[in-house]
Amino acid sequence: MTTTQAEIRPELVVDFDIYDPAVTMPVDRMQEKAAALAEIGPIVWSTSHGGHWLVTAYEQVHEILRDPEGFSSHPNNLVDAGQGKFLPIELDPPEHTSYRQALQPLFSPTRMRALEPRIREIVTELIGSFQHTGRIEFVEQFAHELPTQVFLALMGWPLADAALFTEATEIALNGRPGDTQEQAAQSRTQAAYEMFGYFMKVIAERRAAMAAGEAAAEDVTNAIINTEITDSAGVQRAMTDDELARMFFLLLIAGLHTTQGSLGWMMLHLSQNTAERDKLIEDPAAVPAAVEEILRFEAAIAMGRRATRDVTVGEVTVKEGDQLLLLLCAANRDEAEFEEPGALDVERTPNRHLSFGSGPHRCIGSHLARLMLKIAAEEIHQRIPDYRLDPEDPPVVLPSQVRGFNRMTLLFTPVTTT
Ligand code: HEM
After folding, report:
1. Of the residues 71, 72, 86, 258, which should be mutated to test ligand 1's pocket, given the most ligand atoms within 8 Å of the CB?
2. Is the four-CA dihedral 370, 373, 377, 379 of positive or negative sign?
């Protein structure tokens, strides 16, 4: 039997809903709300989405992430859209291990480092396209474009389909704007199935080309199609089309929105902490540590877990089958782990933030994400360093388990080239 609200001490019960537009609109109040939850305790009970636990403390979040036996990764999403599991993120070890091993080498630090010149070219082109204007909508013109161009090239998927990918992943994460909770679940399922259909076609075309002996593209898509996994029955085999489609869609969601969000948070917080920003402008070598601090300061992800047995978290008994949501944004500002957690300190060390997760599901794309953030930060702070928010057009944050921006208008001194 799972926990019912009646069994919980009333002071631990809150009505917080991570998808509630009131959390982020008209201004983002997520950190404020997360801090208020953390003030109550390391774990509290939310009445939303049928009731679930919210874990706020660094120690407990870290422990849960590293205990896949006690806490299953399925479902990772609070809203059950009935679309089945995303691979590998919703599988538990030992089943998860083989799928992860298939992916991990394709996103290794060495492979990602080789992308640096191309990423810098894209960043330079993007900034070059707007630096003379003095005003940009940063999400559309940069934060969305950069990971999209990098990721689609890596996968070998057509840039012409970028708009389709964007729409489908946005709906899969958040539903359609204005949806009720039930409508959002339906919209999500529909978007997921449309994308599964799209990827089924990609897989069929790739397999047909390989069977016809055509020279295979050396992209991540073909590498994954040609990789073998050992399934739960111990059989070594290629992935089925269904498994591949579920993995490709997860990669698309994981690769695009997270990086887009972090680029937005970087601009927001550095424009509001100009003394910290000056350090990056004066010394590009300060960028890598600053990227880690931006990731810590605004962890965009809140992942779900489900208890597989009765277990104590903090001083609370969580029952088998209970759903949990791990608030990385609260854990990353836990003063038991970080000195002055509410201050943005681009030289912070040590900085053991949890923004890429921890344990068996730790982010596979962290090297790629860090590289994109680093190059973007280096080039932006050399070329349009005095950016600031447009007071006439304040940023719009989307409430979600992957929290990011809908829009963010920035002003800066235009750069004229002769
Ligand atoms: C700043 C950008 C990013 C952030 C903050 C981020 C964050 C995360 C987090 C917190 C997890 C763990 C989820 C969990 O434990 O339930 C994760 C997993 C994952 N991420 Fe990322 N991510 C980012 C970029 C990327 C990129 C660019 C890719 C694409 C290659 C990617 C691919 C993945 C995959 C495949 C997983 C699942 C790993 C597994 O289940 O074993 N991520 N990410």
Report:
1. 258
2. positive
